[in-house]
């Protein structure tokens, strides 16, 4: 009986100690907000209408709560094993025309966004087995040419 108690205690201690070990935690980059690039800001010109600005920049992330004359485009990238990059573009309007552009952060640096290819299920008809057969080979009774 004492041997059984020792065995159970040892098993319990080993399993608890194994759960406390640090093997590392998977982290991933966390992008938030509107991606703003130098090319987008370079297309902006004073005098543009709000619709023209929306065409170039997209919808703003924030509109000033007490004044509809200021739009803010914010972007923050929290890199998994690195730094946090923040960008901000503030656009000011007067009489529905762009009058001022203020930028913060390094808009000129490139940001590598992860590709979404291979994430999630493949759409119907996009699997490798679907592309292997041509439409002629799928129909029974259709002669196929053999080289």
Automatic annotation (TrEMBL):
Per UniProt, residues of the Outer membrane protein assembly factor BamE domain are 33-101
**Gene encoding this polypeptide?**
omlA
Name of this chain's protein: Outer membrane protein assembly factor BamE
Mode of membrane association: Lipid-anchor
Q: Which InterPro entries match?
A: BamE (IPR026592), BamE-like (IPR037873), BamE_dom (IPR007450)
Q: Which Pfam families match?
A: BamE
The alphabetical list of record keywords is:
Cell outer membrane, Lipoprotein, Membrane, Palmitate, Signal
Q: Where in the cell is it found?
A: Cell outer membrane
Biased composition range(s): Low complexity: 114-132
Family membership, please give it. Belongs to the BamE family.
- From which source organism is this entry? Litchfieldella qijiaojingensis
Region Disordered: list its residue ranges.
Answer: 110-147
Keyword Nucleotide-binding listed: no
The annotated subunit structure for this chain is: Part of the Bam complex.
The record's listing under PANTHER family reads: OUTER MEMBRANE PROTEIN ASSEMBLY FACTOR BAME
Q: What does this protein do?
A: Part of the outer membrane protein assembly complex, which is involved in assembly and insertion of beta-barrel proteins into the outer membrane.
